[in-house]
Design brief:
heterodimer; A: alpha/beta; Rossmann fold; Alpha-Beta Plaits; four-stranded antiparallel β-sheet; B: 255 residues; mainly alpha; disordered N terminus
């Protein structure tokens, strides 16, 4: 039985005339890994800041563990959120961050944190403001993992992390998640790298949710059809087109549809090439500016 | 999609409020240099300068009695206070953002920060008041200098020195912290309104006092208050800033 951890209805945040989050609805279930995907400035961090009680919503309803998160200690102590732009006191070194962590996270695992410090080769006794971007990200990743909070957010966790460190993060996250299930929200724009980690996707663009679906449903749901322009156009005529490229007489069209066997055979017969679309390509198609005016995008969102 | 089950997650045992407030005190104290180390290094440095001056003056055969008199007007004893205003500012400007990231509430953060300010002020007041007595007992550290036994200090005994230091210390910390809460809630616009509002208020008071020719009466009133009375007003202001900061910080957002 899954329990709902977060429920947002019409959640809105405005900054003057700019609407950063525009009446979004979504729920997060217990013990799943969510991907909060979208371009820079799409509203990912704002959503997470509202969910963690750091920002006050301007409209809508928000329940986290059964009540509004802001200023409710019994909700907040089950949440861990180290923002990508997290500020630290000037006098702080990583050693101070990890020393204070167990006072705030009741499930804190100091041994695990120590191992991660070693894995990420994080210098414990350097001032936080002197750390490189990657080392700063490592501090957030270590806090997020070792806190074992029932609701953990990772905001762009691999900014500046090298390939090895990113792999360590994925491995440790999956290992620890298997042993200590919890709800995890990963916000990122490096989509393909985490695609296999995610169980559910929330794609956000310009403050609205474009897609809210299980990752398994989304994977392989879209197909790119390439070939002679006229043939392609005829083939995709009744389908939900989410991307279209033309070079001379050739066309490559991405459709938001899983093709059945009959379709595949027919496509092969008329000389069309079919290719799967990666999650990243799919999201680029959905959030790319060139398609903003395209009607089909609204269909996808709906 | 999974069916949404309307069921609240079972709440675990509520921990005592004190734990949640006390951890903020520990958070401020995790780098003890900020509240304890640097202020005392500043004070120690000032003391060292005074000692060197005392040695030079003594060696040059100056009138030690007169030097001590002159030193009473030095503000060296207050030297860490300007730094502590900045500590108050940073406690809110940086530590608040961090504590919110760690899941503290604004309420507990302010209460914990206030408790920290209280502890620091009491400790500093004990230390300063005691150093005043020590300086008097050693006749100015055997050099005739007057660093702690200066300004209003050293005239009405340990208790008055303790009380005045405590009041002033709380005032300094809370003014820095509470003004910063205005920034954390309303950002630059709030600071501008606060600044211009304060300037306008001061000018209005000066204008009224001048036109009503009530300055002599005001000075007389202050003189009648005496040291303890004046610092009771300072303590009252500190309390006012503490309450104001609490009200403002409840809707503050991290940078």
């Amino acid at each position: 039985m899954t329990r709902t951890v977060v429920r947002a209805r019409g959640l809105t945040k405005r900054y003057g005339s700019f609407t950063a989050v525009d009446s979004v609805d979504f729920t997060l279930e217990e013990n799943r890994i969510y991907g909060l995907l979208g371009r820079n400035g799409a509203g990912k961090t704002t959503v997470m800041q509202m969910l963690t009680g750091q920002l006050f919503p301007d409209g809508g309803e928000l329940d986290v563990f059964g009540r509004a998160p802001a200023e409710h200690a019994d909700v907040l102590r089950r949440i861990c959120f180290i923002a990508e732009s997290q500020r630290y006191p000037d006098s702080f070194k990583p050693v101070h961050v990890f020393k204070a962590a167990p006072w705030f996270f009741e499930h804190w695992d100091a041994e695990f944190a120590e191992r991660l410090v070693h894995d990420f080769r994080l210098p414990l006794n350097r001032y936080v403001k002197k750390l490189s971007r990657g080392q700063l990200s490592a501090v957030g990743v270590i806090v997020g993992l070792a806190s074992r909070a029932p609701l953990t957010f990772f905001d762009e966790p691999y900014l500046g992390l090298d390939a090895v460190a990113r792999q360590i993060f994925y491995d440790r996250l999956l290992e620890d998640y298997a042993e200590h299930p919890r709800t995890i929200v990963l916000s990122t724009h490096l989509i393909d790298e985490v695609a296999n980690l995610l169980e559910h996707l929330l794609v956000i663009d310009q403050g609205r949710i474009l897609l809210d679906r299980d990752a398994d449903e989304v994977r392989g749901s879209a197909t790119t059809v390439a070939g002679a322009r006229a043939t392609v156009d005829a083939f995709v005529a009744d389908r939900a087109v989410i991307g279209r490229e033309r070079i001379g007489g050739l066309a490559s069209v991405t459709i938001d549809e899983r093709l059945n066997q009959a379709d595949r055979v027919r496509a092969a017969e008329i000389g069309l090439e079919l290719a799967p679309v990666s999650l990243q390509q799919l999201i680029v198609h959905m959030t790319g500016t060139d398609l903003r005016a395209d009607q089909t995008e609204q269909e996808v969102a709906a | 999609m999974t069916a949404v089950i309307d069921q609240q997650v079972v709440r675990t045992e509520p921990r005592s409020r004190f734990h949640e407030v006390w951890r903020i005190v520990r958070l401020h104290a995790v780098t003890p240099s900020v509240f304890f180390g640097i202020p005392w290094i500043i004070l120690g440095g000032a003391w060292l300068v005074m000692v060197v001056i005392g040695i030079i003056a003594g060696g040059a055969g100056a009138d030690v009695e007169k030097m001590g008199e002159g030193m009473r007007y030095s503000w060296a004893v207050l030297s860490p206070q300007w730094y502590l205003v900045a500590v108050g500012v940073q406690a809110i400007g940086l530590t608040l953002s961090f504590a919110l990231g760690f899941g503290a509430t604004r309420r507990d953060f302010w209460l914990g920060t206030s408790l920290m300010f209280g502890i620091v002020s009491v400790l500093n007041a004990i230390a300063i008041a005691t150093l005043v007595q020590l300086e008097k007992a050693t006749d100015g550290w055997w050099l005739g200098i007057a660093m702690f036994d200066a300004l209003w200090y050293g005239q009405q005994g340990w208790v008055v020195d303790f009380y005045t230091t405590l009041a002033f210390q709380l005032f300094v910390l809370f003014i820095g912290a509470s003004v910063t809460t205005v920034y954390m809630r309303w950002r630059m616009r709030g600071m501008m309104i606060l600044m211009f509002g304060t300037v306008a208020l001061v000018l209005a008071v000066v204008a009224i006092a001048t036109f009503a020719e009530s300055w002599p009466a005001i000075f007389e009133w202050f003189a009648d208050l005496g040291t303890v009375g004046v610092f009771s007003i300072v303590l009252g202001l500190a309390a006012l800033f503490a309450v104001g900061g609490y009200l403002v910080i409840r809707r503050a957002t991290p940078r």
